Amino acid sequence: MPSGPAVYYVAIDDGGSRGVRFGCNDSLVPVRSGVATDDPLTTALGRLFDPANTTAQESGLYNALSGSALHFVSGYFSGTTVVVDLSGSLRPGGVCDNPRIEAQLTQTIVAATGASRAEIYIDGKTLDEALSLR
Question: What does DSSP say about strands 26-32 and 69-78: parallel, antiparallel, or unpaired?
Fold first, then answer.
């Protein structure tokens, strides 16, 4: 059984039957692959951002970040919050992708680090600001 960090994908319009219900009646579903690493955050985000990663499709899930070109820059703890800096561009596929992108990033980061919450920045803008520019 894979023991690598969980990466979160979306079960579209399944009403929470496969995971936590959010957004446009979707579910957030954790998928583990690979083996445990010394740097679960870099590993998890690398899998989430890798355009060649077919884990979501193979599991019948959707990756709202598949059209984006993001890269992990750094991450650090500020109390119980993990602050993550990314670079690149977001390319949501529609209005329902905004909550999907936010949920996928936040849950993947929190699960990988054990933090209680995540602050996410893309090229210096908060995730909310980056999504609102789309």
Answer: unpaired
pLDDT tens-digit readout, 84-100: 999 999 999 989 999 99
Q: Are 30 and 20 in contact, with CB atoms under 8 Å apart? A: no
134 has a pLDDT exceeding 70: no
* C-alpha–C-alpha distance, residues 115 and 113, integer Å: 5
36-75 pLDDT per residue, tens = 889 999 999 999 999 888 889 998 999 999 999 999 999 9
12/97 Cα distance (integer angstroms): 10
Q: What gap in Å lies between CA 90 and CA 132, rounded to an integer?
A: 11
Alpha-carbon distance of 58 to 52, in angstroms, equals 12
Residue indicated by tokens 């750094």: 74
Whole-angstrom distance, CA of residue 18 vs CA of residue 78: 32
Going through the chain in order, the beta strands assigned E by DSSP cover: 6-11, 20-22, 26-32, 69-78, 81-89, 117-122, 125-126
